[in-house]
Design a protein that fits this description.
The protein has 2 domains: 107 residues, Aspartate Aminotransferase, domain 1 (Alpha-Beta Complex), CATH 3.90.1150.10; 247 residues, Aspartate Aminotransferase, domain 2 (3-Layer(aba) Sandwich), CATH 3.40.640.10. It is built from 13 helices and 12 strands. Strands 2-8-7-6-5-3-4 form a 7-stranded mixed β-sheet, with helices on both faces. A hairpin with a 2-residue loop joins strand 11 and strand 12. Helix 1 packs antiparallel against helix 2. The longest helix has 24 residues.
């Protein structure tokens, strides 16, 4: 049996407003914000309401620029190549709606991708031309080199774009996208990256990755308020993008704002408070040495994976290193209707997703700073009951 593990920063749990009568292991879907981040979020809302016209008309654009500068420093990208969006689905819709393809063109993706993004591609390609090609990526994973070669074997002369996750939602896998982006650029293939689970979860260097388009959420692992996401576009690819919402962004010119930023910022009366709070979320993690927090979370998740494997007899989907996963531990469980998401919630007060993927069933256990070994013990006891039944 594996030895107990103690988190190095247990006091962080008190920084979050999560209910104490539940076991919350689903930060990957919607995480909780630290109290000081929520306080800053509400402060911005209060400041806006104190004089809304002044805030929107005279202050908003400058404040958003300052927030983009701090976000840019965090992800190593120029602020003028970043625009705030409500979430990654919105950001990906901007890109997918803007790109144009011929009838026989192919967009290569994998069978691990998020359903909402697949739906967006299928919808727009069905109206405008082109088709999706889903490369099967088997698990367990082997090496990054094998992954790249296997994925690249599905490239054809018809491949015009690649749409792939940096960290997958269903299977919680970190994909080696840097090499894929490098090969795609050399081949003249557009890269569209789903980074929903990346900021705050693993290190992100957008300049180093060199993707054409990269959209991500800040309201997941970065712990910013809900409604905070961004879209990054390479400078030479920005002219291809068209707004989803047409408003003053097409006719009102601001000398100090690049066209790309203006196009996706002046789109109506959006609440800017989630975006303005992103710097506070970044500072919260810096202040609390988040690289150490992530390492501790990975260790706790690793132990949990092994404990569940001991109960089920099912092998892990990757090794224990941080090459393939970090804070979301994918745990195979028997495919049985009695192992049910609602049962875990209703009978054990455990919030954890059960993922069905390619005939397999998994628990996707997200480990965040507020989780403790006690949370994992509760999950193990519940799995014991469900597997036994």
């Amino acid at each position: 049996m594996t030895a107990p593990l103690t988190m190095p920063l247990p006091e962080l749990a008190s920084q979050f407003n999560l209910r104490r009568d539940i076991t919350f292991l689903n930060h990957g879907s919607f995480g909780s914000c630290p109290r000081e981040v929520i306080a800053e979020y509400r402060r911005w809302q209060d400041e806006l309401e104190s004089e809304p016209v002044h805030f929107f008309g005279r202050r908003r654009l400058d404040l958003l620029e300052q927030a983009r500068i701090k976000l840019g420093a965090f992800v190593n990208a120029h602020a003028d190549d970043l625009v705030f969006v409500p979430n990654i689905t919105y950001g990906m819709n901007i890109v997918i709606n803007s790109l144009r393809f011929e009838k026989d063109d192919e967009i290569l993706t994998t069978d691990h991708e998020y359903g909402a993004i697949n739906n967006t591609w299928e919808y727009h390609l069905g109206r405008n031309g082109g088709k999706m090609v889903y490369a099967p990526i088997p698990i367990p994973m082997t090496t990054e080199a094998d992954f790249v070669e296997h994925f690249w074997s599905h490239i054809t002369p018809k491949t015009k774009a690649i749409s792939i996750s940096h960290i997958t939602s269903a299977t919680a896998m970190i994909f080696p996208i840097k090499e894929i982006c490098r090969r795609a650029r050399a081949a003249g293939i557009i890269t569209v990256i789903d980074g929903a689970h990346v900021p705050g979860h693993i290190e992100l260097d957008l300049t180093d990755l060199d993707a054409d388009y990269y959209s991500a959420n800040c309201h997941k692992w970065l712990c910013a308020p809900k409604g905070a996401g961004f879209l990054y576009s390479r400078r030479d690819m920005q002219a291809r993008l068209e707004p989803l919402v047409v408003s003053w962004n097409l006719s009102r010119h601001h000398d100090n704002i690049p066209r790309y930023v203006n196009l996706f910022t002046n789109v109506g009366t959006n609440d800017p408070a989630p975006w303005l709070t992103v710097p506070t979320a970044i500072e919260f993690q810096r202040k609390h040495n988040w690289s150490a927090v992530r390492a501790a979370c990975h260790a706790l998740g690793s132990q949990t994976r092994m404990r569940i494997a001991e109960l089920t007899g099912l092998p892990p989907v990757s090794d224990e290193s941080q090459t393939w996963w970090n804070q979301m531990a994918l745990c195979p469980v028997p495919t049985d209707e009695r192992i049910d998401y609602n049962r875990l919630w209703n009978e054990f007060a455990i919030e954890v997703p059960i993922v069905a993927w390619n005939g397999h069933t998994f628990l996707r256990v997200a480990v965040q700073a507020y989780n403790t070994p006690t949370d994992m013990d509760r999950l193990i006891e519940a799995v014991k009951v469900l597997v036994k039944k």
